[in-house]
Amino acid sequence: MIATLAHKYTQAIANRIINLERTIMKNIFTTLFLLIFTVVSAQQTETEHQDRFCKHYDEQNGIPSYAYRNDWQSDLVNDYDVTFYFLDIEVSNTNINVGGEVTIHGTVLVEPFETFAFELFSGLSLENVNFNGQNQTNWTRDGDNVLLPVEMLITGQTFVATITYGGTPPTGGFFSGITNAHNNQWNKDVTWTLSEPFAAKEWWPCKQVLTDKADSVWVFLTTANTNLAGSNGLLTNTTDMGNNMVRFEWKSNYPIDYYLISFSVADYADYSIYAKPSGMAGDSVLVQNYIYNAPNYLNTYKNDIDQVVPMIELYSDLFLTYPFQNEKYGHCITQLGGGMEHQTMTTLGGWSFNLVAHELGHMWFGDNVTCATWSDIWINEGFATYTNYLAQEKLHGWNSGQNFMIGTQNNVMSSPGGSVYIPEAEISPDNVWRIFDGRLSYDKGAAILHVLRHEVNNDTVFFQIMHTFQETFTDSTATGDDFKAVSEAVSGINLTDFFNQWYYGQGYPKYDISWYMFNNTYNVTVTQSVSSSTPLFKMTMDYKLNFADGTDTIVRLYQNTNIQNFAVEVPKQVVSMSVDPDNWTFEKVNTVTVIVEETNNPNYFAFGPNPANEYLNIYLLNADGRQRNIQFTDIAGRVVLESSFDQPNLKLDISKLVSGAYIINIYDGNQRFSKRFIK
């Protein structure tokens, strides 16, 4: 653990930050001319980001009403701890019918324990419940809750309940528990599950509580012997059941949350490959892919499928060696419009780099460490989106990473408000899309991790935070505050302001900046406003200073008031500046004001004569062949003459201007330089 870290700015820079308010006001009104221009932020480039979202395709399209019942969940499910699930069910690739037995092993948490409660969609038949060896018939069904009176148990006692059920689950929306579809290109029927966040009960009897991970799970799937059926853990056996039926027996010994238990069934072929994370000392991780069993399918997608191997190795180096290494990682291809990170075997609708990277990232953030509440979905989706960014940066290069992050930040800023944390009152079965809001849970969640990495300003420390978080909460659940505590312990930084403004707060900062040079001091006034309700973002910002000789430097300035003055000693004359050149943070720059001398600007342009009568000569002191635009305005701001030039010198005919004072404005990209002259 690293106990301390260089803070947001060094003491040397802090010593150069002085109070310039009186000096600036005096200079503005005596020797300087103030001028403002609007900066188009480099972060406004649009990029395609749809395929980065796992559960965020076709938003709010085709959501069936049955998915959001008002009965919700009985509190009695919290009276016990699930230790083991055993699903022994029959499934098909041509329909969504499901049925068989589900066994739940549990430990009593409260006493007296007199009612065994579980969840099962009311449209599925409930044929029998065997509790501790006794068949029971006196259950009641309250919506999707099943309540079974049992002989009293006390805290610490264990029980085994086997539930026989069957029927046709609801379907038709993205969050349906089971979906069946046909792939026309490859002529395959496929059936798959998607239980997140509240739909596990639509296809099997369960307890839908995030903080209660089962210690282990078995999923036995009986289907036609022309199919393969994929699920969690390792395929331990394949049993011939007669009548052209076969049972695939999957077992996992890792803790697992209810919504990560899954199956997918189709006429699949098994394409298995191996990853070799450095932390496994030469051993391998099985990557088992169930792909459509069709000619040319593997040839078509082999390279896309194989890309997961370097991703596993990368994430293992960055965070923690693949957390389910004793079993496998894998994919089941389906017609899902996106992907779902089912533990050890993701359900996918395609093989795009971003989608594969995102779902794999969930094995660490979402599966190994799972959000403890749906309010903290950031732990799943924001982190997985950031792993996607890291895959782009580390595997495809800096520019690919930049394109990904710019698109992420632009999406965040496409609306002014919204917090990453979701208030508890907004979490309900009829508000599922708030949980999986692509702009907030995914993109803003990833973007603020990028801001945190910038604040820490040390990649060794940042990735130690990620590693420690994984180690601390492995096989368990965590909240945003848990991540805050780990981050503070590892970095030595107080992150209360950071989380209040970025995680719980809303919006993003906006900047108006004015600057000037005085001898070897770069003087800048930074005014921060905000897009929404968070009043101030206390943060470090990078400013790139471009010098007259073509070189540049980046200074890091920490701002903790809405209006703040800084003075930074620099070795050369600054001719221009840019904000956040490497896109670490997300913000909008409204204006940059360059304060230049009225009679002389040795850094940019000169002119003469002054006063002038017929002609005025403009001398560009740093000409580089680029075209500049020039405007003359009167003292009321009206444009009276304009032109463009790309040469060092320009001779303008001003004979038609009436006598008086004018302003010369030369535009150079995003900056404008101005001086006054007399006609």
Structural key phrases:
single chain, 679 residues, alpha+beta, Immunoglobulin-like, eight-stranded mixed beta sheet, five-stranded mixed beta sheet, 39 strands, 20% helix
Short description:
The protein has 679 residues and is an alpha+beta fold. The chain has twelve helices and 39 strands.
Descriptive notes:
It is a single chain. With 679 residues, the protein is of the alpha+beta class. The chain is 20% helix and 36% strand. An 8-stranded mixed sheet has the order 7-6-10-4-3-13-16-15, with no helix packed on it. α7 packs across α9 (438-456). The protein is elongated and about 105 Å long. Mean pLDDT is 88; it is low at 1-50, 56-70 and 597-602.
Q: Globular, elongated, flat, extended or rod-shaped: what is the shape?
A: elongated
**How would you state the average pLDDT, rounded?**
88
The CATH superfamily of the domain at 65-372 bears the name tricorn interacting facor f3 domain
Q: Provide the CATH top-level class of the domain at 65-372.
A: Mainly Beta
Structure summary, number of beta strands? 39
| N- and C-termini, Cα separation | 69 Å
> Which quaternary structure do these chains form?
single chain
Count of helical segments? 12
In percent terms, what proportion of residues is strand?
Answer: 35-45%
Q: Name the CATH architecture of the domain at 65-372.
A: Sandwich
Q: What can be said about the biggest beta sheet? A: 8 strands, mixed
- Strand order in the sheet with the most strands: 7-6-10-4-3-13-16-15
Could you name the ranges where pLDDT drops below 50 across 5 or more consecutive residues?
A: 1-50, 56-70, 597-602
Helix content: 10-25%
- Indicate the structural class: alpha+beta
- CATH level-3 fold name of the domain at 65-372: Immunoglobulin-like
Report Rg: 31 Å
